[in-house]
Write a structure and sequence with these properties.
The chain is built from no helices and six strands. Strands 4-5-1-2-3-6 form a six-stranded antiparallel beta sheet, with no helix packed on it. The chain is globular.
């Protein structure tokens, strides 16, 4: 299945939060944030600032979350993407 965002929207696949910290400690469920702010670009509408495969940061409470074929996605406006991680 292909999902093509319209206009200035970008489809993101959120990165899973690590269960363990860099120092080897496991995070309890209460310490995990509800939503990651880091994601991979899956598909792009009319935006030219990001491309498929980019690793990006987006605003914390932006976008709409949904699940298709047991995969989680977030669709955000291009203006809600604040950085590309290289």
């Amino acid at each position: 299945m292909t999902i093509q965002p319209l206009g200035e929207y970008v489809l993101l696949s959120p990165k899973k939060q690590e269960e363990k910290t860099a120092s080897g400690l496991y995070r309890p469920e209460t310490a995990k944030e509800e939503k990651s702010q880091q994601a991979i670009v899956v598909s792009v509408g009319d935006s030219e600032s990001v491309k498929k495969g980019d690793n990006v940061l987006f605003k914390k409470f932006s976008g709409d979350e949904f699940t298709i074929d047991n995969e989680d996605f977030i669709i955000v406006k291009n203006e809600d993407i604040i950085a590309i991680i290289k």
